[in-house]
Design brief:
The chain is α+β, with helices and mostly antiparallel strands. It has 2 domains: 95 residues; 130 residues, Umud Fragment, subunit A (Ribbon), CATH 2.10.109. Helix content is 29%, strand content 20%. A 9-stranded mixed sheet has the order 2-1-3-4-9-5-6-7-8. A hairpin with a 4-residue loop joins strand 5 and strand 6. The longest helix has 16 residues. 25% of the residues are buried.
């Protein structure tokens, strides 16, 4: 939307953080992030860019879900997020583009498009040796033609157990995108992550309770209660982008009408 409106400082700071959240959580369009926030108006961002005041409901939703500092948006007081550290102070568009490139390509181009596969049998070893090049080179690889997931930024994990049923059943595969530690304080609430600790690999929904604690949530909640994990115990985080479902439903009898 083209506009000659001059935005006030609060609107500019809000749009800066809006672009930061989009870039760090892979939202390609404003409508996707608005949907994730369960915000009904799909034209809200266009209206702000045209000069409309930032809705308190929208600001609160963005801050609560993605760790944006309400104080920064309102007053300009750093840090920009609800952490002790600040994010780089660059303009919203260039900052978002830079983060998007890092998320897409990593620090260096991947030499191979194949994804490393971590089956259940290798997960105990992975939790101990995940930083060792020799161990990683020995893992199986999977090629996914015509899919956007390629190279070192993504990894495939096999689901173990039934704690995430019915969403993820045992032996399903999930594709995870690596989340760098600098972004762990802005993880998307209730999304599914692969969590690597020193002695195990877990696949759970994540709720960021505060800077140092996460609540791990199973979909099979009747048998697997929630529990808290400290940030210092996490070695890697992978945001689940897609599941690979091996099941086919049985034939369904229908009435023939022709």
């Amino acid at each position: 939307m083209q506009t000659n409106k001059i935005l006030n400082e609060e609107q500019q700071r809000f749009l800066e953080m809006w672009e930061w959240v989009k870039a760090t959580h892979d939202f390609r369009a404003d409508a996707e992030l608005l949907s994730a926030l369960n915000y009904k108006s799909r034209s809200a961002i266009s209206e702000i860019k045209a000069g409309k005041a930032v809705s308190n409901n929208l600001l609160n939703a963005l801050c609560d879900e993605y760790g944006v500092s309400r104080r920064y948006v309102k007053t300009g007081t750093l840090p920009r997020t609800n952490t002790d550290a600040d994010i780089p102070a660059t303009p919203a568009a260039s900052q978002g583009e830079e983060i998007r490139k890092r998320k897409a390509y990593g620090e260096a181009p991947a030499a191979d498009d194949a994804l490393k596969f971590v089956p259940v049998a290798a997960q105990a070893g992975y939790a101990v040796h995940y930083t060792e090049p020799r161990f990683l080179s020995d893992l199986e690889t999977i090629n996914l033609p015509n899919m956007p997931y390629k190279g070192r930024r993504y990894r495939v994990f096999e689901v173990s157990g039934d704690s995430m049923e019915p969403t993820l059943k045992e032996h399903f595969h999930v594709i995870g995108e690596k989340i760098e530690p600098e972004f762990w304080n802005s993880t998307a609430q209730y999304y599914i992550y692969v969590i690597v600790t020193l002695d195990q690999i877990l696949i759970k929904r994540l709720f960021r309770k505060d800077e140092e604690h996460y609540v791990l949530i199973s979909d099979n909640k009747d048998f697997y209660p929630q529990f808290i994990m400290q940030r210092k115990d996490i070695k890697e985080l992978w945001l689940v982008k897609r599941k690979m479902d091996w099941e086919m439903p049985p034939p369904q009898k229908v009435e023939i009408e022709v």
